[in-house]
Design goal:
Layout lengths: L1 H8 L6 H4 L25 E2 L5 E6 L4 E8 L19 E4 L9 E6 L22 E6 L3 E14 L5 H5 L5 E13 L4 E17 L9 E2 L3
Length: about 220
């Protein structure tokens, strides 16, 4: 039920990019890919729990510190302030920490009152693109995108996105699709699926060792 409320709240935006004719790129059908790592891998690499500090996505020029947000009293997910935090992404603090076995969720706005926000170009990602999440323990968890999909919020697969995963999964979420001026919300959500492939000390490029589980 919480998952359903999460998508109902969505990552609300104001349609600025629509009115300004600056359209965010929508996920291509060719980028749909897979929602998991595939290849018969059950657990793969993993890391112990450590809170995330920042996210870096080179392919779309995103580098953001991470807010830690939960849910409001009504059960709807908290989102960054459109007025002061639209340039920052937020980790959903009731999900796994990045690199842990399970689904770690990071959200961000598509646009804001002033223009494009932190995840404006999220729909341009493709399978194979890299996502780096720096953690409080000084380790950068390195993820690879496996798929990019768009869902109508009326048919949002909350269980698949927020539910349990048997590998170190990462989900990035923002708004997308058509903007409904009557409600002030986008009708769809863009979701990026990624899985952990390696880890390294923060600030270094060489991949470090991570523990590997078994099926």
């Amino acid at each position: 039920m919480v998952g359903v409320l999460l998508v109902m709240g969505g990552v609300a935006a104001v349609g600025f990019v629509i009115s300004a004719q600056a359209h965010a790129q929508q996920p291509a059908l060719a980028a749909a890919g897979a929602t998991g790592p595939g290849g018969g891998r059950a657990r793969g690499p993993s890391l112990p729990r450590s809170l995330p500090v920042s996210v870096d996505i080179p392919a779309i020029d995103v580098n953001s510190e991470l807010l830690h947000l939960g849910v409001n009293a009504d059960g709807i997910i908290q989102v960054p302030s459109l007025s002061t935090e639209a340039s920052e992404a937020a980790w959903y603090k009731f999900s796994a920490t990045p690199g842990q076995i399970g689904a770690s969720v990071i959200e961000g706005h598509l646009d804001s009152y002033r223009g494009p926000a932190v995840f404006f170009r999220l729909g341009a990602l493709r399978p194979g693109d890299r996502i780096d999440v720096t953690r409080a323990d000084g380790i950068t968890a390195v993820f690879r995108v496996t798929g990019v999909r768009q869902y109508l919020k009326s048919n949002f697969p909350a269980k698949r996105i927020y539910g349990a995963a048997n590998y170190a999964a990462l989900r990035l979420i923002t708004c997308g699709g058509t903007f409904d001026y009557a409600t002030g919300h986008y009708l769809s959500s863009t979701v990026v699926y990624a899985s952990l492939v390696s880890a390294r000390p923060a600030g270094r490029r060489r991949a470090g060792r991570v523990s590997r589980g078994t099926a």
